[in-house]
Queue: 2 jobs
Job 1
Amino acid sequence: MKVESVSIFQWWFRVAVQLSLILLGACYRSVSTSPPPVKLNTENPHQVVIDNGIISLNLSNPEGDIIGIYNGIKNVLEAKNKEDDRGYLDVVWNEPGKHGMFQRIRGTDFSVIAANENIVEISFLRTWTASMKGSSVPMNIDKRYILRRGDYGFYSYAIFNRPSGLPAVEIDQIRIVFKLDETRFHYMAISDTRQRNMPSVRDRASGQPLAYPEAVLLTNSSEQQFKGEVDDKYQYSSENKDNTVHGWITQDGLAPVGFWLITPSNEFRHAGPVKQDLTSHVGPTTLSMFVSTHYAGKEVTMAFGEGETYKKVFGPVFVYLNSVPNKSQFRSLWSDAVEQLSNEVRRWPYDFVGSKDFLPPNQRGTVTGRLLVQDGGKRDQPANNAYVGLALPGDTGSWQKESKGYQFWIQADKAGHFLIKNIVPGDYNLYAWVPGFIGDYRYKTKITIERGGNINLNSLVYNPPRNGPTLWEIGIPDRSAAEFYMPDPNPKLVNRLFQNDKQDKFRQYGLWERYTELYPNHDLVYTVGVSDYHNDWFYAQVTRSTPEKSYMPTTWQIQFQLKNIIMPGNYTFQVALASTTNARLEVRFNDLNAKLPHFSTGLKGDDNAIARHGIHGLYRLHTIAVGSNHLVNGKNTIYLTQSKGISPFMGVMYDYVRLESPPIKST
Ligand SMILES: *[C@@H]1O[C@H](CO)[C@@H](O)[C@H](O)[C@H]1NC(C)=O
Ligand SMILES: *[C@@H]1O[C@H](CO)[C@@H](O)[C@H](O)[C@H]1NC(C)=O
Ligand SMILES: *[C@@H]1O[C@H](CO)[C@@H](O)[C@H](O)[C@H]1NC(C)=O
């Protein structure tokens, strides 16, 4: 049976719905006529159809792959693709010490969780059995879909469950993928500024791959507008906190249609609010990323020991479809999707989810308080816009690598007040960091959230690392390298979308190559009091390429004057790194030839933010003590050597560096 075939009745029904949408336009929603009931159809043993008269969803039975999504006559998914290659959930995993495997999760048991005129929820469960060892991720996975009466979209979520007795596993990625109709969806939108017509898969296939396969120079696009541009899906990444709505618009057919992936909460995503991940990209593809090692590396893998039990709900996310009657209004589909996001956020946590593992609002708790900062001997000040969150108990700063539990983050107000709502009961630590200050805060007492519980922590005080007064500093302590010098891209390797937007300049391809062009003969030298970090501090300490196409370590210098040196005394060099990729940063004071560096980070990091056009990866703070015998009155030089060569993508991004004089002795 052809998947695409629909009964004459269904066809007429959809035509009627589409026509009524077009005729009534935006009024449709405000008119209080009751929308049709939701229907579940399982007549075809290999397919399940759920339909609310606005949206119709076809799923393979019992695999639970999304075969078709209709809000009109045509499938919005790519019907040329196989049934398991249109809308699916996949996992990248490995047994410890073995190679990673990519697996699409195919259900084996279909069941109906709810089916009445107001809501249909269906489940496609894949239960792990010992015969699957080595070939299938050791986790029971339940894929759920919800369609409600009157909704312009459907909800999707997944329950991951490890009962006792399962083998060890590391999970590097969990996501839901949607592949849209290639012939119709050309316009992609991720934010108010990141939106435009996109090249096609064919444009990429006929282009020239660059330093890695994801980056392609479009040498032979059928459309003039894309010729000579670079396309790379990593240019469309977002931080979790901003990865809330993205998708595609088709302007073909009777009326423009938008397809949007809406993520109303980050609680189920891992590694905190500034973890970056993919959104939508050429395909046309839209992703819902739950877990990945992107911009973080294997340090954020979900690692389970043998027999370790686990349960977590990923989602729900909302797949929203909208339309407007007139092509000239197609851009309004984006603003309508943004409005829909705020509707979903307002309704979060949903009270209609069938799984008892997804807790409704009345079973969750809150934490309130106020965070103050006391930096050095100064008076307390409000932790203005601090990021405050709950994550599984761990060390200070551990949330950025924490991948198993739920996380609940907000930004405090100007006065440092925070209110974290809708927390799933359980044990947590409260973590925070404050833009403008180095380091990480952790409230030392474990916090236990109970059903309906409300915890008030009152005033908390964060003492950022500091051993003495600041002598000088470079950059802004905010866990990003965005304030440093961002070169113009090679004119032959641009993405024109980012050309007029200074904020997004770091997303251009190949900026790392500009270092060797800017510093052909000698490495960067920064003179405190003379240099300006906006212009004179390259955004990343990358390797230097040689004409023979090999890559050399680099040594940057910070030169500064010191007067009235305190002898004896311990100075402190604070080095906050925003990203580290296969790098070893060595620090020497005034003696480049010292065989042993004064300090070395050791070989660290795999966040790959240089290659992936991130402006940060994982945050690392190094507090380095330097005795005054290593410093002199007058001119001093700190040598920063990134001692690993080999690849253009090895290196570090600095967030901020500071030299502190010895502690002031209180008498
Ligand atoms: C370039 O594009 C043209 C027209 O689309 C096509 O016929 C040709 O095969 C393409 N060349 C390459 C090298 O892909
Ligand atoms: C669509 O919008 C354009 C521009 O606003 C207008 O000129 C045109 O008449 C509209 N078409 C229809 C069918 O309403
Ligand atoms: C400097 O630090 C070292 C190591 O912590 C310590 O032994 C020494 O007493 C300190 N010197 C001064 C002058 O504080």
Job 2
Amino acid sequence: MLRFGLCVFFFLFLPNNVKLLDNGLARTPPMGWMSWGYYMCGDKCKEKPEKCLDEKLILSVVDAFYNEGYQEAGYEYIIIDDCWSEQKRDKNRRLVPDKKRFPRGMRFIADYIHARGLKFGMYTNIAAKTCMLYPGSRGYFDIDAKTFAEWGVDYLKVDGCFVEEDFLNIAYIKLGQHLNNTGRPMVYSCSWPYYIQYIHHKKPDYKAIAPHCNMWRNYHDVYLSWEAVKIIIQHYAEEYGVLSAHHGPGMWNDPDMIIFGTNSLTESQSRVHLAVYVMLSAPILLSCDMSKVTAYEKKLLLNLDLIAVGQDRLGIMAKPHSLEYGVTLWVKRHLPMKGDIYHSYSFAIVNFDSEQHLIHFFPKVYGIDSADGYTVMDVFSGEFLRNVTLHDPMQVTVPPDDVIMYTFFPL
Ligand SMILES: *[C@@H]1O[C@H](CO)[C@@H](O)[C@H](O)[C@H]1NC(C)=O
Ligand SMILES: *[C@@H]1O[C@H](CO)[C@@H](O)[C@H](O)[C@H]1NC(C)=O
């Protein structure tokens, strides 16, 4: 009965004619932590101990997720990015974890992670070398897929440096088949469209990509500054038409990591960063020393009203509308529904201008349609502000570099 219910559910809510990777994973956007954003290669542990990618770091993230409420809020995948291996494969041509930094190997880390109910992610590149010149998977798809499966990997990020365009288009599909052949479901995170667009200067064919990957990068890496976050958000606003058409359960556009815990953002900027990412239904991947997450950032990360919008099972990417003064109104339709007819909606009003603005808008223009009205919640405070009819205007004051976010539940 339950299974039947689930089938009906997916049947009802998947966009028509969209094929997706049939591994049962990432039906909501993955949440977790990945090493690259803050630690980058992290292999100079003597010179830069504070940026060392090693076993101790990974276990510290696992412990933080397990002990500090992140796991309960949905943070699940802990992902080791580039630079984790020895320079040479072993005599069976298998990849070997760096013996100094990962002395007990990857199976040990996977077991530690799984024992706490969390999931383990790793990284490779589609070429013979990784982007940072460690051994890559070209010529070894079969062996590497089996190795990752034996280690207990649940998520694989596959980068796309150093190969020609034709190879990208073939190899991501091939590697995906090898992953499938292992029988171990792994979230397949592809950088395929990014390399097509920004290295080979062609238009990615998302229709061809979406059935083969659970998520994909389509834009530049984030770096540790507010500018980088703003540029990514503006890119998603501009590319909404292209990106939203191939986005939903099992297939996510990935705007790259959340830069919390790196002392890069003010409180209002961190609100914008996380609010827009949940409105997009983007993967939420932290990258930092978990002990450096500020109390305010943690409050946002564990705000279940916010997370619920991002983890909504419909997985609809919010649509951006340009208002006056460079203010953008993002609108997202989501669950719960009233009587299988009327959706809930979230509205995020983002101000990138340098001055505060008073904004008026009519939610009715952006889709709300229940004649019984809505109850309006401020997502950051969790307070129910008031009940509105279909015809009421909204009036909000948005400070510079800030966001006001409301969820409307049908009454
Ligand atoms: C492999 O692909 C088949 C067919 O698409 C699918 O039913 C199965 O769940 C996949 N298995 C894994 C481990 O991804
Ligand atoms: C909104 O309406 C509901 C249902 O009629 C009611 O229970 C609630 O108290 C109202 N909330 C406010 C803030 O007026």
